[in-house]
Amino acid sequence: MTTTINEAKQLDIHGISPSRGDLKSLCRRLAAIGIIAPVSIQLFHKSGSYTDVFQYHPICMMMAFVMVMPDVVSSIRRLRLARQRSPRKSNGIAKPLDEQLSRSEIIIRHQLATFVMELAAAGGFASVEYIKITHNYQHLKSLHGSVGALCGVTIVCQMVLGCILRYVLSPVDPKRLMVRRAHKYVSATIAVLAMMAMCGGFLATEYAEKMIPSSMIRTVIVLASAATTVAGFFI
């Protein structure tokens, strides 16, 4: 799915230098870790326990949408760019598109990134559901909860559309263009809803105020997360 430091070293050992895009992606992931790790430490420190299920909700959601979602979106952009240009040739031999990556490799990375994002998001949703069920809390009582639920439904729609594109429709099917466009718009909707939910979760919930009392720090976390995520869309 992603190029790690070890993978970058292996590429260099085999005589293939990491692409500029891979290095930018690595820097973006390190920035995301630099945001998520301190937040996680603060949550564990404030709760004083690793057994508080709800504290895993913001951690999982940040992993899904700050760490992984940019890889999902950027891979879609890479695929679109790959379709718009023909393969480069050297001595009559076609070279892979998108620097060292072939189209099939981009698709595999996109699928893996999507799977990891959905898995992390599922962990975040599961932690909320567990607390609501065990404490008999009502669902969708806040704007943050409603936006989050809508984001979850949209993620499922994205997964279904992606599976249709990958496994159902042939490359020449006339319906493919319509489904591809819907998949793109759904992906953009997920990005917007995720950012809205994150802002609401950090800035307008009692839990966030309890765990991170300083509104200034919470605002910085939101701005840094949003900037890191949006920057990742264009890498």
UniProtKB/TrEMBL annotation:
Gene3D superfamilies of this UniProt entry?
1.20.120.1770
Q: How does it sit in the membrane?
A: Multi-pass membrane protein
Q: Name one Pfam family in it.
A: Cytochrom_B561
* Domain Cytochrome b561: from-to ranges: 109-205
Alphabetically sorted, this entry's keywords are: Electron transport, Heme, Iron, Membrane, Metal-binding, Transmembrane, Transmembrane helix, Transport
Which parts of the chain span the membrane according to its record? 26-44, 56-76, 112-131, 143-165, 185-204, 216-234
Note whether Ribonucleoprotein occurs among the keywords: no
The cofactors named for this UniProt entry are: heme b
Q: Which GO terms describe its molecular function?
A: metal ion binding; transmembrane monodehydroascorbate reductase activity
Q: Does the keyword Flavoprotein apply?
A: no
Q: State the InterPro entries in the record.
A: CYB561D1/2, Cyt_b561/ferric_Rdtase_TM
This entry carries the following GO cellular component terms, namely:
membrane
Q: What is its main location?
A: membrane
Annotated compartments: Membrane
Name of the protein: Eukaryotic cytochrome b561
Source species, please?
Answer: Leishmania naiffi
